[in-house]
Design a protein that fits this description.
0% of the residues lie in helices and 63% in strands. The strands form 2 sheets. It has a 12-stranded antiparallel barrel with strand order 1-2-4-6-7-8-9-12-13-14-15-16. It has a two-stranded antiparallel sheet with strand order 10-11. The chain has 296 residues and is mostly beta strands. It has a single domain, classed as Porin. The protein is built from no helices and 16 strands. The chain is globular and about 65 Å long.
Length: 296
Amino acid sequence: MANTTPVAAAEGGYSNYIPGFYGDIALAVEPADGLSLRNDVYFYSAEADESVRSGLIEAGIDIDLTFDYLTLLYKPGNEVFGARYAFGATFVYGNVDIEGDISVGPFSGSFGDDKTSYGDITLIPGVFYWNNGDKLHFSQSFYLVVPVGDYDEDDGANTGLNYYTFETDFAMTYLNPETGQDYSIVIGYGYNSENDDTDYQSGDEFHIDYVINQFLSDSWAIGLHGFYYEQLSDDSGDGALLGDFKAEAAGIGPAVMWIPPQYEGKVALVAKWINEYDAENRLEGDHVFLSFMMSL
């Protein structure tokens, strides 16, 4: 192993991309017409040896995130460009708890901070769904993360990131009801704007999320969910004190899904854990989701 010091690309070592957030069951299959609701309770515990936040160099960071994400998606039932169309938004509230050491030139010290507040809103201007027969499904999604969350450059912990993210994702699902197989993949690309308060711009991001599920019955399924993440362009700006480096990470973990039969497929509950490994220039930890989905 090379004798190097791990660092955390993207400001603070994490970004608006959340591994495992893109779904659990038949990702590219269109929802029912009308309003769909999804609520994700998300826990993330991670650490990194060095990072940049608010223009300061930090070492020995430990961070715990607890967030609740409420997503509303509306599918009016009409077609756009030959595809079924939906739109919506995600609202966020949660807690950030961070501890670490600061070192800027000859000055150093320890710090700790936590904040519980609202986060950035994600607008979903369009999701387009196609299918090729009964088993093969496709979707194209567009997201805009708007920096309206609670952010103060003088705080160590913030529930908002103070920059826009423009994200587009393409998903494909193979769903075979006869054998209970559910295989999905999501390929995404995100562009991050500059944080005007810190003059720090996190690099562009590429990610692949995948889902392998096996239904054991009409109500129960188990799965293996994972991701691969790579930062395609360097961090930049006057606040990028650690230089122009890129991040990379991967993770995988188990999931269990329950579709209560009394609700005729309109309700689902999911629990999953994704463990990160081989993280380079990025926080490394564990992602845990407890999710509830309902078609209204």
